[in-house]
Amino acid sequence: MSEAKRIRDKAAGKRSADDEAFIAEVREVRQLLIDSNGFTDLLKPLSTRMVFDLLAEFHVISRKTHEAAEARIKALEEGKVIGVKYAGTYQRALPYQRGSCVTYQSSMWTALADVPEGIVPGNNASLWQLSSKGDKPVTVTNPRATK
Q1: Is residue 131 helix, strand or coil?
Q2: pTM confidence score
Q3: Phi, psi at 73, each rounded to 5°
Q4: Residue 142: inside a domain
Q5: Are the beta carbons of 87 and 115 closer than 8 angstroms?
Q6: Residue 106: which domain range?
Q7: Do residue 128 and residue 92 come from a single domain?
Q8: Tens of pLDDT along 2-59?
Q9: Residue 89 pairs with which residues in a beta bridge?
Q10: Structure confidence by residue, pLDDT tens digits, 48-93
Q11: Does the residue 145 lie in any domain?
C-alpha cells in the first residue's frame, strides 16, 4: 500500500489489518490492566507501578508467542514437523510418514497419513493422494530378457 493511500485511509477513519491487530492487542492489555488494577487507575496518569504492570503484561503476551516459536524450531530441528518431503521412487518394502511424496508409475503421490509397507499408491484413497499425474505409466522392462 502506498504511503499516500495509507494517509488518506487513516484520515477517512479506515484501518489496515496491522492497525486492527495492534488495537486488539492494546484492548487485551487494557483489559488485563483493568482486571488487575481497577478501572479508575486507567483514568489517571500512569504511575510507575502501572508502567511496570504494563510491561509485565506485554512480557506475558510476547512470552507465549516466543514459546510457540521455540517449540516449532525444536520440532523442525528434530525432524518431527509434518510437511511435504520427497521420499524418492515408491518402494513397497518401506513405510512412509504423513507428508511423504513418492513417484509411482510416473506420477507423484502424497501420503495423507502414516502408510505401512506394501500399500501401493492409488490402491487406498484414505492413505494416498495423487499430487501430479504423469504422462503415461512406466513400463518396467527387463534388459536381461532374451527374445
Answers
A1: strand
A2: 0.43
A3: -65, -40
A4: no
A5: no
A6: 85-132
A7: yes
A8: 666 666 666 666 667 777 777 787 778 777 767 776 666 666 677 777 777 777 877 8
A9: 103
A10: 777 777 778 778 888 888 888 898 888 878 876 667 888 999 999 9
A11: no
